[in-house]
Amino acid sequence: MRISGKGWRLMFKYDYLVVGSGLFGSIFAYEANKKGKKVLAIDKRPNIAGNIYTQEIEGINVHMYGAHIFHTNMKHVWEYINQFAEFNRFTNSPVANYHGELYSLPFNMYTFNKMWGVVTPEEATAKIEEQKRKAGIVTPKNLEEQAISLVGIDIYEKLIKGYTEKQWGRSCRELPAFIIQRLPVRLTFDNNYFNALYQGIPIGGYTDIVANMLQGIEVQLNVDYLKNKESLDKIAEKIIYTGPVDAYFGYKLGALEYRSVRFENEVLNKPNFQGNAVMNYTDKETSWTRIIEHKWFEFGKDKEGSDLPKTVISREYSSEWTVGDEPYYPVNDAKNSNLYTEYKALAEKESKVIFGGRLGEYKYYDMDAVIDNALKLAVKELM
Q1: Using CA atoms, how far apart are residues 244 and 347, in angstroms rounded to an integer?
Q2: Cβ distance 44 to 247 under 8 Å?
Q3: What's the pLDDT score for residue 13?
Q4: What is the dihedral sign for C-alpha 211, 216, 217, 218?
Q5: Position 3 confidence tier, pLDDT thresholds 50, 70, 90
Q6: Is 316 marked active-site?
Q7: Marked catalytic residue, from 186, 198, 241, 358
Q8: Which of these is catalytic: 156, 241, 257, 290?
Q9: Which of these, 291, 356, 244, lies nearest to 67 by C-alpha position?
Q10: Which pLDDT score, from 0 to 100, does residue 276 have?
Q11: CA 121 to chain centre
Q12: pLDDT band at residue 219 under the 50/70/90 scheme
């Protein structure tokens, strides 16, 4: 990876200008470079890696834009990403904190025992079915009804409602049912949140993965493509754009809605704050949605395998997005989906530009889906 200053003002010719150095853009850049294409990757931030950027603080790899736990059932994606880093055996087992009461996430027999005192799967099933019958839901029409149909009213009220409404800034009755359809509910004591064959955290952090992808590729940081679009468009035959699709078109059809996230990071002079990587605060009264204690992604050890004397925590706050804020994830309700369809039609007319990634396609992608889509594009584009 060669990081340069403002060389883009010189009239170099590139086969591809990649806008954004997150996973999607960096994978395409890597694949194009392998094929002998001349690539320039730019990012408006002062760092590479997009939202998976990690920074070492007190020997701890801090997920600066929120917790990222890699998981997939796609073997080819797992094998692909492992060429850029070695992964540890981290298993995502978040904890729900409701006014000091702690519950297991995913929802499993530990959760049901704590909530209702049930001991057997039959007892848990009977309790959930009883609550579902009382609610009288046949076909869930929104997130609230979907949640109740999965786990009953008690768990919905204590562990889902407050957290979800903080996260999305909307009533659960206004949110689409599909958001929570993947909610893990198990009649076992399995504490693994994900149903994934492959899972882990890259040893040394995610930034190294992207740095390895961008080896031998020119990278320019602190470059805002949209502010310099006219000049930048002239130096490459094609553009891979991973920024917000509505921003690309100057919001001419109106702004799509996103959720934004703010983090308060704190270094604590103690070895252990909460004993777990992720704790969700599910009551409405606590202003943050969750606290991340980053050292536990790598089992509290430094590079040499020694215990770390300090810890770093991040309080995460979800907020409504306005133009100029960092967009994190799209609000895929009917109104925004319809608006995106109009922007997609405009995007398809841009013969020189390919839109990709979460923001470019206005989709809530997991990391493995981003990788898979980037590889599919590379095959199609670079054949």
Answers
A1: 11
A2: no
A3: 87
A4: positive
A5: low
A6: yes
A7: 186
A8: 290
A9: 291
A10: 98
A11: 32
A12: very high
The tally of domains found in the chain comes to: 2
Fill in the amino acid letter for 120.
T
Catalytic: 9? no
- Residue 66 within a domain: no
Residue 173 a catalytic site member: no
366 in catalytic set: yes
Check whether residue 182 and residue 231 sit in a common domain: no
* Domain span holding position 130: 108-186
Q: Is residue 182 among the annotated active site residues?
A: yes
pLDDT in tens, 125-146: 999 999 989 999 889 999 999 9
- Which pair of tokens denotes residue 113? 């025992």
User: How many Cα atoms within 13 Å fall on the side-chain side of residue 340?
Assistant: 20
In which residue are the tokens 């470019």 written? 360
Q: Say yes or no: 356 and 208 in one domain.
A: yes
**Average pLDDT score over the chain:** 95
Q: What is the dihedral of CA 279, 53, 325, 142, to 10 degrees?
A: -50
- Judged against a pLDDT cut of 50, whether residue 10 lies above it is answered with no
One domain, residues 336 and 249? yes
